[in-house]
Amino acid sequence: MQWFFPSSLSRSPAREYSLADSVTYKAYQTFATSQTGNTVSLAVAALGSSSKSPLLPGVSLAGFVVSGLIFGQLGGYFGHHRRGWLLLSFTFQLVILAAASLIVAKSNQSHSSQKTTGWVHMLLLAVQGGPQVTMATNAGCREIPTAMMTTPYAAFISDPTIFQSGQGIDVRARNRRALYIAVFWAGALVGAAISSLCWMSIIVGGCKVVAMGLVVLAKGEVGDQIGADGGVKDGGEEDEVYSGFQHIVRDERNVAM
């Protein structure tokens, strides 16, 4: 059951960014976290091949990169799997999400146009998405990416265990990929059905609260730790959410021996 926590922490962001991207694409034709689409939009706009303004994709990409850079580097310093760091990151995301919801609510009350408040709302959603995706990237589950769907599709259909029943063979990697794809589709469909940006924020916030609960309930790891030189050394109990990467390194060392 130890492998459950990294995959569960990654599946929650999968629901969040697929749902958020569906809603923001409907409202602004821009993605909050899928920066592949925003990068393509900016490239097309830069060559004058599109009549669409590059403002929103540019704001989204800039906010995502800056916040992701800050939290990605700080996470590496404090420990990506430290319980306190994960809770702090989730709290920051919830605060930014709440601010985005307030802006949407006030703009609806004052009948402000999306041109006036849209870029601020998109910036805030991208700022909360940066830490979210960098956290998922470092969750320690190799089978689950963070934003692209091409890799999960390719990995799943080329998995040698795709047609296996699971008896006498380890199919956990296949199951994680399949569940990731299903959860991503579920989030995208829910987002496409939501017409309110406020409701999107509430649902995404709820997913973050659930993820925070998983972090709180996760048992701290006891035993080996990764040293500064990449080697495995003995250690005491750490207040960390289980890191699948540590056990991957251990397995590779055992095979090499």
How does this structure look, described?
There is one protein chain. The protein has 257 residues and is mostly helical. It has two domains: 4-217, Up-down Bundle (Growth Hormone, Chain: A); 219-257, no CATH class. Helix content is 69%, strand content 2%. Strand 1 (225-226) and strand 2 (232-233) form a beta hairpin. The radius of gyration is 20 Å and the shape is globular. The two termini are 26 Å apart.
Radius of gyration: 20 Å
Distance between the termini: 26 Å
Return the domain count: 2
Kindly identify the CATH topology of the largest domain. Answer: Growth Hormone, Chain: A
Q: What number is the mean pLDDT? A: 74
Structural class: mainly alpha
* Beta strand count: 2
Low-confidence stretches: 1-11, 222-238, 242-257
In N-to-C order, the SSE pattern is HHHHHHHHEEH
Helix content: 55-70%
Shape: globular
Can you list the strand order of the major beta sheet? 1-2
Kindly estimate the percentage of residues that lie in beta strands according to DSSP. under 5%
Compose a concise summary of this entry:
This protein has helices spanning 4-28, 35-46, 55-78, 83-110, 114-137, 150-157, 172-193, 197-217, 244-256, and strands spanning 225-226, 232-233. By secondary structure, the chain is an all-alpha fold.
Indicate the topology:
Layout: H1 4-28, H2 35-46, H3 55-78, H4 83-110, H5 114-137, H6 150-157, H7 172-193, H8 197-217, E1 225-226, E2 232-233, H9 244-256
Antiparallel strand pairs: 1-2
Helix pairs in contact: 1-5, 1-7, 1-8, 2-3, 3-5, 4-5, 4-8, 6-7
